[in-house]
Amino acid sequence: MAESSQQSDLRIPEDDFQQTADDREPGGAAGRSDVDLLRQAVMNEKAAPELLHYETDLINRIEQMLDYQDEQVELQQDNPAMEELCLMWTVELSRIRYYLRDYFRVRLRKVEKFVMHLLDNPDLAARMSDKETNYAREFFVLSGSHLKSTAANHLPEAFASIVRSAGASAAKDLVPAPCLDRHVFCRVLEDRGHVTVDEEGNMAEFNKGDLFVIRYQPIRELLQEKVVQLC
Amino acid sequence: MSPQSGTPLLHLYWSKSRSHYGLHDLSSCFCWHLPSALTYANTLGCSEARERYRQRRIEEGLDPDDGGNPNAWRGTDAEASELMVYHTAILRNKQLLFNYVKLREEKIQGLRWTHRALPAHVRANLSPAEQQYFRGYDQLLNKYMRSGRLGVGLDLTVDPTPPDDPYVQVTVLRDYGEVLFTSGKVLLERGKRYWLPGDEAHPLVMDGVLEYFLGDEKK
User: Fold this and answer.
1) Is the minimum CB–CB distance between A108 and chain B shorter than 8 Å?
2) Which runs of consecutive H residues, i.e. helices, occur in A49-185?
3) FRET partner for B128 with CA separation of 20 to 30 A, picked from A59, B11, B119, B195?
4) Is the distance from CB of A4 to CB of A12 less than 8 angstroms?
5) What angle do CA B108, B112, B114 make, to 5 degrees?
């Protein structure tokens, strides 16, 4: 394992499972490999009810490393001495690609589900990458026009909107929005002391290594600061 | 509420809810008559309410077309409740209709993720608008997955579960001809087994040309 880690910058993901909590350096993201961070991003994305920020830097780095490793495999392919190593690299590549695909898949599903909500709020729309924003706009046009032509156009004009239930409704109440009160499991990465977890002001103590089952709403900002991770 | 407009609404509600539960395999045909019949019932309800209001105003000696103060309700309580009934009925129909269409939309999207082209028996159950929706969604997804400026460069439908091996063993289900993979040229003939790169074999598995071979069962 040491030999391969000298020759490639990516650690084989199986290593992560063997690593104990003591090996992780304090401070959250520092000292963790990119693969670990990607795996964390995928888990966060899967557990969170809303769309999280797109990890531009992380994804760019991972894609660069994938290309680099692809090249290495191709260069060494004719060399019979390196055959086993090539195979290991290919396995690693396919597994890391699986994480990447999963990340994009989960995000795409959330974009499709909450497309109207995301396009309406600019600060939420900033969480999508450029390609996802493009996709969201076109998907909205596609599904909106389909809904309109099959259903909304057959209703009386006052009710024909796809965002409001009736013309007189004050708010856009037909827009599906994520439920932020869903409970999630979260693990704390840093000491934070007392944190307000309720509208009534109840506090809970967030120490490193704690595991909570908590509503998503109170830990939303902590998740953005990477103080907690969802599992 | 006149009996003529009441019964079709209820009938459609029940047929709609039954079709709602039976949507699992998209085995129900898209009900062409549904939107048009609902339109009839809705507009009938609306126009009846409007007619009643006009009659009432004529009786009172007022100009029937005068909009007047929109906040003041000059009808009787009975008319107010009649309008409420129509209003809520229309809202309920709208909700049903939208749920139906959206549920079918979601299923069509799901089909794109598991199959690359629609099988014939499913296509027969979709209305032309929905077939167009499938094509539009297909194009949209392909654009997102293509490499280049707008795309992500990865085929996202591959690998729904974590892969064990970069290569998979597949059985060929029907003759397909010669195909070039990164591992070399392979002639796909029915009944033969090959080791192929997983990424590239997956689209052919989705098309039905190949089948994953899970190993001989030894008893």
Assistant:
1) yes
2) 56-75, 83-113, 115-120, 122-125, 130-150
3) B11
4) yes
5) 115
Subunit contact A162:B133, Cβ cutoff 8 A: no
pLDDT in tens, B139-191: 988 888 876 565 666 777 776 777 777 777 888 888 777 877 777 777 878 87
Token pair 């109207």 in the structure block, residue: A116
CA distances from residue A167 to A66, A108, A162, B93 in whole angstroms, order as listed: 52, 31, 10, 15
Instruction: Please report, as a single letter, which amino acid is at residue B186.
Output: V
Interface test with A, best of B154, B157, B158 (most A CBs within 10 A): B154
Look at the pTM and tell me if it is higher than 0.80.
no
Ramachandran class of B61: left when φ > 0, alpha when ψ lies in -120 to 50, beta otherwise: left
- Residues of B in Cβ contact (< 8 Å) with A91: 165-166
Q: Provide the residue count of chain A.
A: 231
Question: Which of A215, A220, A219 has the alpha carbon at shortest distance from A182?
Answer: A215
List average pLDDT for each run of 10 residues in chain A, which is 231 residues long.
42 39 40 84 91 89 88 80 81 86 89 90 88 91 89 74 70 82 88 77 80 87 85 85
- Quote the ipTM score: 0.77
* Helices vs. strands in chain A: H and E counts, helices first: 9, 5
Angstrom distance (rounded) from CA A212 to CA A214: 6
DSSP state of B193: E
